[in-house]
Amino acid sequence: MRSVDLFDGYLQGTLSTEEHKQFELRLKTDLVFEQAFEQHKTLVETLQNRAKQEVFKAQLKAIHTEAFGNDARVISIKQEGFFQRFGKTAFIAASTGLIAVITTVALLSAGGYLLKRQSNEITDLKREVVELKYSQNGIVSAFTSQPAPPRYAPANLEGSGFALNNNGFIITSWHTISDADSIFIENKFLERTLAKVMISDPKLDIAILKIETDTVYKNWNVPFAYATKPSDLGEKVFTLGFPRKEVVYGEGALSALSGHYNDTTMYQVSIPVNPGNSGGPVMNEQGNIIGMIRGKLSSAEGTSYAVKISDILNSINSSNTEGLNVNVSKKGLKNLKRVEQIKRINPYVFNIMVYKEN
Hints:
This protein is of the alpha+beta class.
């Protein structure tokens, strides 16, 4: 469904309960989408007001005709041409409408929502960083008299990743870290920490990182396991990732058991994802990992792809890397409510920061 149709469906109340829920979730997490919607709503309201004016004018004309007949003329006290009388108002109204249309089209185009500009390729979800955090931190510290957090140079790219085991191994998307000069990870539980690439599998689009300082993961207790059995169509799933500076939750379902062009190494999932989500875990309702976010279909919002955990594990096992063992039997999250699952998972989902020379 096109974004414009989603906008109209939401305004007219024709979306299903699930579509309505997903739409409002996306408004909160996708700034470009929210701006496009607001512009569309303004345009719709402008057109509706114009239509009401036309109806009112028609009613007045009908009253006038009934009272004075078709041949009656109304002569203005001050004779003015049409443009002198209405030109300024008409010009302002036309300009406002044109600006609203142009702005809406620009926002939709920039966000990849305009159908004629879309393609059917997978969009990588690495996030190019525009760093405003430092100045914001400085302002906050000035008001609160609290010391500002450490100032780091902004990364070139950012993405997501998650722990594979208690030995400091982390998985992320290869397209995020390729050609990196240095890689750091962090989250609210972990200060920025250096990691190095141990394994790369560009074909599967995965990379395995290792934290360089063993004291960082000394007390790790990764709570989730890895689902070895294939997941079912329609199964409820959720993901955590870093399309922004704090972790973001998304939920949906498995909408297909294969990926782009029937790629059997991927699942298709109905979770809205954004740049920065690449490398984030996809989990079933038991809290077990079933895959890793790879990207999204550029021509269909809410259509995302995840590399299957079975293929990830096959790639890991073939590497014979020391210490890179994963747990496929732990069930520590199975009977917990979602909010409790997330609390236990969050310390092991990371913001991946990539630095490059050029």
